Amino acid sequence: MDWIDLRSDTVTQPTAAMRAAMHTAAVGDDVYGEDPTVNRLQQRLADDLGFEAGLFVPSGTQSNLLALLAHCERGDEYIVGMDAHTYKFEGGGAAVLGSIQPQPIVQADDGSLPLERVAAAIKPVDPHFARTRLLALENTWHGRVLPLDYLRQARAFSRTHGLGLHLDGARLFNAAIACNVPAREIAQQFDTVSICLSKGLGAPVGSVLVGSAALIGKARRWRKVCGGGWRQAGMLAAGCLHALDHHVARLADDHARAAQLADGLGKIDGLILLGQHTNMVFIDVSAEHLRALDTHLRAAGIRISIGYLPTLRLVTHLDVDDAGIERTVAAFADFFTR
Ligand SMILES: *Cc1c(COP(=O)(O)O)cnc(C)c1O
């Protein structure tokens, strides 16, 4: 079956050209800093985004964790969105491994943390309190793009309050494409940025953390401590470099297809279109229909994530083409008109 998999943009298969680039990559021992392809990837993203250094790691979770460990010490605190990935979906790693206390804040609907709420959460310098060190933002958040103006305000705010500023930019390039600005313009508002190459960019494995040489030096040490020092990782880095060369501009196609999908689903009675943001579409389907819908879609060769909530997230990516969108809309329409 020719599956259309809309569960996530992590499900992509490496293209033949990407596999060829990986196959022929020059490699060395990265713990010694000797893998030329890893070094090229790290420097490439650092240069493109305007930072001194980069660090290649296996996952976005590890990249965010290393950033938190680099910014904060035991007994420090970071301020973060209540529904942010670094707080909610990373196993509490900063607390588990760094004795770093999270201070979650309720986010606005666009994913931003209202700065007056952040200000109210900053602790006084007093032995009663954890030391507030860092503000962590996420862009895109559930596909939503944080406005550039807000990022500039957050930058000024963090300077005023002496806080570091970290971006979980798992989908930084989706945000840049949606804003029609170079990714650098977004990244430059932050002290550290974590970028996933294995989401919409389509590499099989890998994230890169960029920042100052000092912060990345600390992160490198913590990567080794966490068991993340790797050896001939250049084969993976080659896939990431290929993705940066060939899969950034095409993210616009994913956004356009998500808009097409939203347009089609919005015309179907029986489901509620909640919205479309970059490469994600959100719909509500009443709970009683979820199981039957899942079965119906699978029979039509379509995979979506069905959990226990009525809200469904459909994600477009490299392996979903126009025909896939049409087939999906048709399968939904078929289910709800039966
Ligand atoms: C996927 C994701 C991560 C973590 O990436 P993994 O590679 O799955 O660990 C972090 N933040 C956001 C917003 C993500 O979507």
From TrEMBL:
Protein's UniProt name: Low-specificity L-threonine aldolase
Lineage: Bacteria, Pseudomonadati, Pseudomonadota, Gammaproteobacteria, Lysobacterales
Record keywords: Lyase, Pyridoxal phosphate
Domain of life: Bacteria
Enzyme class: lyase
Pfam family, one: Beta_elim_lyase
Keyword Lyase listed: yes
Subunit record text: Homotetramer.
Limits of the Aromatic amino acid beta-eliminating lyase/threonine aldolase domain: 5-287
Gene3D superfamilies per UniProt: Aspartate Aminotransferase, domain 1, Type I PLP-dependent aspartate aminotransferase-like (Major domain)
Cofactor: pyridoxal 5'-phosphate
Keyword hit for Lyase: yes
Entry's family note: Belongs to the threonine aldolase family.
Source species: Thermomonas beijingensis
Gene expressing this chain: ltaE
Molecular-function annotations in GO: lyase activity
Entry EC number(s): 4.1.2.48
